[in-house]
Structures are given as structure tokens and as C-alpha cells.
Amino acid sequence: MITAGQSTTIDNFPPVGGVTQKVEGFYRVCRALGLSGNQGVIIPATNVKHLMLSDEVVKAVEEGRFRVWAVATVDESIEILTGRTAGERQADGSYPEATVHHLVAERLRGYADKQRAFAVAPNGPGPGSVAAPQ
Questions:
Q1: Considering only CA atoms, which of 105, 62, 114 is closest in space to residue 87?
Q2: How far apart are CA 49 and CA 103, in angstroms?
Q3: Which tens digit of pLDDT belongs to each residue from 73-131?
Q4: Residue ranges of the domains in the chain?
Q5: Hey, which CATH number is domain 2-82, 3.20.20.70, 3.40.309.10, 3.30.230.10, 3.40.50.720?
Q6: Are 6 and 43 a contacting pair, CB within 8 Å?
């Protein structure tokens, strides 16, 4: 699976140039390797009106042998790529459990805790910490 384009903000995928050629090029690579139905592309939703796919690609999509997902947000892409709900930030700044954003926040919190524990050992500064100037 590939994505065509870039994200400028968390909720915006601008259109990309040459999207038809990019989709069809990736399709040809997948076809050469054998279409399994798991291959596909993620494109900005703003490009759908410009997409002019060949009959062969359209047929492969209709038959479920190739996929084209149009997304408007990064979260939509996350959900396609992971099969999990991305998660909406709650009023307290947290994310619902079992969402991608919750899992990422937990992982980052764990890294931060390890960094703090490494920097300040029980018997003084630990390896890699910088002592205050005297």
C-alpha cells in the first residue's frame, strides 16, 4: 500500500499532481507481483474528481483485487493502515482506550518516564545526565 501526497496539517490532505499516473504505476507493480486484493493506494479525497483510471484498474477495483481509498484526514489514513479507530481527543486531553492515539500517547509516556529515570538516578545524576555548573 502506498500513499500519494503529503499532509500539511493534521486534518488536511491537499491534492497531488499526477495522481492517476501514480495510482496506475503502483497498480502495474502490484499486478506484476500478483494482485492479492490487499494492495491499494490512499489518495487525497480532493483528487477523486481528477482521477481518470484505465478500464483495467477500474475493473480490478470493482472485483476487489486492488483498492483505492480517498481520505480527507490523517486519521482516516491511520484507520485504513492499522484497522483501528484513530481516536478523538477528549476534553481532558486524553484519547479513548484501544485507539491508535491512546496507544501512541502511552508509548511516548513510557519513553518519557524511562528518560527521566535514566537522567536522575536515586544516588544522584545518572549516566548521560549533565551536572549543573558550580
A1: 105
A2: 35
A3: 989 999 999 999 999 999 999 899 999 999 998 999 999 888 888 876 666 655 555 55
A4: 2-82, 87-122
A5: 3.30.230.10
A6: no
